[in-house]
Amino acid sequence: MHELYIAECILKSVADSLPPGMNPQAVEEVRVQLGKLDAVVPDTLTFLFDAIKTNGGMPNARLALSEIEVVCRCENCENEFGIEVPVFLCPSCGSGNVKVLRGRGITLTGIQVKDENGEDDGNSGNS
Amino acid sequence: MEIPVIRDVLEESNARAEENRKLFDRHGVFVVNMMSSPGAGKTTLLQKSIPLLQARGRKCAVIEGDITSTLDSEKLSPLGIPVVQANTEPFGGDCHIGSHLVQAALPHFDLANTDILFIENIGNLVCPAEFYLGEDRKVVVLSITEGEDKPLKYPLMFRECQLCLLSKMDLAPHLDVNVDQIKENIRRTNAQLEVIPVSARTGVGIEEWVEWLAKSRST
Hints:
Largest sheet of chain A: 3 strands, mixed
Order of helices and strands of chain B: EHEHEHEHEEHHEHEH
Mean pLDDT of chain B: 92
Low-confidence stretches of chain B: none
Order of helices and strands of chain A: HEHEEEEE
Helix content of chain A: 10-25%
Shape of chain B: globular
Oligomer: heterodimer
Number of strands of chain A: 6
Strand order of the largest sheet of chain A: 2-1-6
Strand order of the largest sheet of chain B: 4-3-5-2-6-7-8
Strand content of chain A: 25-35%
Radius of gyration of chain B: 17 Å
Number of helices of chain A: 2
Structural class of chain A: alpha+beta
Strand content of chain B: 15-25%
Largest sheet of chain B: 7 strands, parallel
Helix content of chain B: 25-40%
C-alpha cells in the first residue's frame, strides 16, 4: 500500500512549502493532483492522510484530490488522445509508439491556511 | 489565505534517488531494478544468471527487498557475492523499496568493485512501479502462470520498464495459458517494452537476458 508513503510525502511537501514561522496547524486544505496512471486509490490516500495528519502536525488539514486523465501523443502521427482503459495504441494510426503527456505524477497544487490575525503568517484576511 | 505551490510530492524521494544515481555514476555501477509479483521467479533468475555474468568477469551485488525474511538472501549466498537485505519489518512492512532504503544499503557495498547491482524489489506489481531509485533500467518479471491480463491490470509497471522477462516458460505445455495473448497485452500496454521468454529451470532465454544486460550497460 504505497498510499501511506505518499500521504507522508504530501505532509512533508506541505510542511516544506509553508512560509517560515507559520504554524502547520493553520493548514485547512491541501490540494493534490493524482495522475490516473499512478494507480493511487483516492479514498485510501484520503483515509491514510487523515490517519496520520495529526502526528504530522496538521490536524485541521483536509485533503482535496483531483484526478488527471491520461493523455498521450502518438510519436508516429502526432495525434493526441485520451485513454479510458490502459491500451496505449494510437486510435488514429494504430502505432504503439506513444508518449504519455498527462496523467502521470502526484503534484501538490495548493495550500489553504487559516488566517491567524498576524500571529503566524502576518496576514489578516478572509480564508 | 492561499499559498500557491506546484510541487512534486515525491521530490524528496527523487532527490535521494538522484544521490544514489550520482554514486553509481561515480563508481561506474550499472543498476537494475527488478520487479514482479511475489513468486514470479526473480531470485531464481538471479541465481541462474549471475554465474553467467561472473563468467564474463562481471562483479555483481544484490539488494534484497523482502518484507519479512532473509530467505532470498540465503538462496543467493552460495554465489559468493555481496547481498544486503533491505528488510522492513518482521511482521510486514513496506510494499516497495524506497530510494532511502537503497541509500541506506549502499555503504555496505564496495561500489568501486561492483559492475552490476541488482535491486530485487518487493513482490508487488503496483507500488514499486511508482518510485525511481536511481537505477539504469527497470525490469519486470512476469511468470506465465499469472494470467494473460496482468499487463492491462498493472499498466504503470509495464509502462515504466524497459524489459519484461516472461518467466516459467517450461510450464507452458502444462497450462492453458495463451503466451501470444500475454505478449499482445504487453504490446498494447507498452509497444516499446522488450520481451525475453525465459525459464530458470531449462535455461531458455537466460543467455539472451545476460546479453541484454551487457548491451544495456554499454549504451
